[in-house]
Each structure stands twice: as structure tokens, then as C-alpha cells.
Design goal:
This protein is an alpha/beta fold and about 300 residues long. About 35% of the residues lie in helices and about 30% in strands. Bound molecules: adenosine-5'-diphosphate (ADP) and magnesium ion. Magnesium ion (MG) binds near residues 46, 47, 87, 161 and 162. It holds the Pfam family ABC_tran.
């Protein structure tokens, strides 16, 4: 039985401009024990999918099963198996950290949970903040509390929606160390992130979402095979001629051009020289998951009739 089964999930929002298809027949199964990544640009539908999984939003059609329990028909059973770290920082300003965790334990009917709460506080670097009021915590500290809150009832499935967006390096490391340990101990992890190097390092399998549709779904190692080439990277103050710009990814002064072999690298360099583009800090790096992601996004036709 899969840990999570999304079965042809559709979500249509009614908007002043007419119906908006946020999710378009999303189907995927996540096996027990997987570390699964859900990637996609802003607005792809990741948070909507997780809200449906969490029972916070209703799917327009299709269904979602959590270890066999339907999130709509059998909400309590499904919810108890999930630990969800939401994208938005939501918290009760009147609680201190320990109170917030005790309250959450109570919500799941878990009593005498202080040993586990202490372990969570320790593992997430929150031990000295147990008595601090939620209001006084920095954004990064609040994020840690949200992770602890999601885990108070030791859920078999952990869902993290962009847990490291705007978070410092130290928290990222603490968090990934802890989540990786839980995954080794058998917990299933579903992660959405903008940081593709995180997904590449952590996730065994990845789905890419574009405009509400799954446009890639494979083992991370398989997806990376599509990135077998190299990337020519340089900086320039010149404007690239259109023929070159069409093949390049430009971020400010930084230009990246995919090259499958040395011959292609030489061709790129020759074309740049011919166009009078002055390239500085030239580097050649191996293609990575971000290159695969951008390739998939450029090639895929998303949903929403686009
Ligand atoms: N309540 C809502 N009403 C209308 N549109 C919404 C609502 N919630 C989300 N959307 C739209 O659905 C799309 C998917 O949003 P979201 O699931 O938050 O994407 P992601 O998490 O991948 O960035 C976006 O275009 C967003 O504007
Ligand atoms: Mg989101």
C-alpha cells in the first residue's frame, strides 16, 4: 500500500475571471519510506496539492489516500498519519514553545508527551527556547517550532512545504540532518522546495509540476542522466545576439549555455567571439538537476489550456 496516493486530483478555483484549474489530473503514488520531492515553479500547484492532502482544501475531483485512508471520507485517520509543515508561518502568539507543542499533542490525543517533546526541542536546536513566547522568536526559530509541531504525534509520513524558503544555512543543516534521520528510521518524507540542490541531495524520486500538471516523474538518478552534459558559464556586460540568447539562460550578468560535448563548448565560444561578446570568468561545470528542471519546464506544455 502506498504511503500517499494521489488519484487524478483536480482543483478548480472559481475566480472573477472564470474557473482556474490549479490542478489538472495529478496522479502519483509515494511508497512507504520514500524521500520524495515535489518540484515546480511558483504557482505550479504544490501548496494546493498539499492542502488537499492535509484536508484543508477539497479536491474538485479525484481522491487522495493516506496509507489507504481517504482524506475526505476518513479525515481523522488520514490526518493522524501525517505531520505537515505548512509553507506559511502560522502560530498562536499566546503560547510559549513548549505550550504550543503540548497543545498540538493534545489535538492528536497524545498524552504524557514531554520526553518526545524534549527530544524534538533538542534535535531542532530549540532546547533553550522552550519557555520563549512564540511572538519573540525569529522567523527561522518559528519555522523550527512548526517542524516540531508537525512531529509531536510521531507521524509515519512527514510533509514539508518549502521548509527552507528564506531560512539560514544553519537551520537548513539542522533540519535536513534530522529529517534524513527520521527517513532512515522509516518515515516517508514528501518535500516541496525551490532549492534544487537540496532536492538533488535528499530525494530518491522527484515529480515536477507545471501549471497543475505532472510533467516529469522519475528517480532522481534517472532525471540526472538527462543532465549528462556540461554547462558553459560566463559573465558579460554585452547583450547577446538573439541567436545566442535563445540558447542561453541569462541571470543578470551571468550567462549559462548547455553544451553536450567539448565540440559544442568550442562552438559556443567561437560564436561568442564572432558576435563580439566579451566573456569573463569563464567556467565549465557539470549539468545538474536545475538544468534538467529548466529543460523539462521549457519543453512541457502545462495545464490550464496553455
Ligand atoms: N484560493 C484560491 N483562489 C484562487 N486561486 C488560487 C487560490 N489558491 C491558490 N490559487 C492559485 O493556484 C495556483 C497554484 O498555487 P499554489 O498551489 O500555491 O502553487 P505553488 O505552491 O506551487 O507555488 C496559483 O496560480 C495560485 O494563484
Ligand atoms: Mg507553495
Amino acid at each position: 500500500m502506498p504511503a500517499i496516493s494521489f488519484q487524478s486530483v483536480c482543483k478548480t478555483y472559481q475566480t472573477p475571471n472564470g474557473p482556474f484549474h490549479a490542478l489538472d489530473h495529478v496522479s502519483l503514488d509515494i511508497a512507504q519510506g520514500e524521500f520524495f520531492g515535489l518540484l515546480g515553479p511558483n504557482g505550479a500547484g504544490k501548496t494546493t496539492l498539499i492542502s488537499i492532502l492535509a484536508g484543508l482544501t477539497r479536491a474538485t475531483s479525484g481522491r487522495v489516500l493516506v496509507q489507504g485512508s481517504d482524506v475526505q471520507i476518513d479525515y481523522a485517520a488520514a490526518r493522524r498519519k501525517l505531520g505537515i509543515v505548512p509553507q506559511e508561518l502560522v502560530f498562536d502568539p499566546f503560547f510559549n514553545v513548549r505550550e504550543a507543542l503540548r497543545f498540538q499533542s493534545g489535538y492528536f490525543g497524545v498524552q504524557h508527551n514531554d520526553d518526545w517533546i524534549d527530544e524534538l526541542l533538542d534535535s531542532l536546536g530549540l532546547a533553550d527556547k522552550a519557555g520563549a513566547n512564540m511572538r519573540q522568536l525569529s522567523g527561522g526559530m518559528k519555522r523550527r517550532v512548526l517542524v516540531a509541531q508537525a512531529l509531536v504525534h510521531k507521524p509515519p509520513i512527514i510533509v514539508l512545504d518549502e521548509p527552507t524558503a528564506g531560512v539560514d544555512v544553519e537551520l537548513r543543516q539542522t533540519l535536513w540532518h534530522f529529517i534524513a534521520r527520521l527517513n532512515k528510521e522509516g518515515h516517508t518524507v514528501l518535500l516541496t522546495t525551490h532549492y534544487l540542490e537540496e532536492a538533488e541531495a535528499l530525494c530518491g524520486r522527484i515529480a515536477m509540476l507545471k501549471s497543475g500538471r505532472v510533467v516529469a516523474l522519475d528517480a532522481t538518478s534517472e532525471l540526472l542522466k538527462a543532465a549528462s552534459g556540461n554547462v558553459l558559464v560566463f559573465k558579460t556586460d554585452s547583450v547577446l545576439p538573439p541567436a545566442l540568447a535563445a540558447q542561453a539562460r541569462v541571470t543578470g550578468r551571468v550567462v549559462q549555455m548547455v553544451a553536450h560535448d567539448t565540440q559544442e563548448i568550442e562552438q559556443h565560444l567561437a560564436a561568442l567571439r564572432q558576435a563580439g561578446v566579451e566573456a569573463q570568468d569563464v567556467e565549465i561545470r557539470r549539468a545538474d538537476l536545475e538544468d534538467v528542471f529548466l529543460g523539462v519546464m521549457a519543453a512541457a506544455t502545462g495545464g490550464r489550456g496553455a
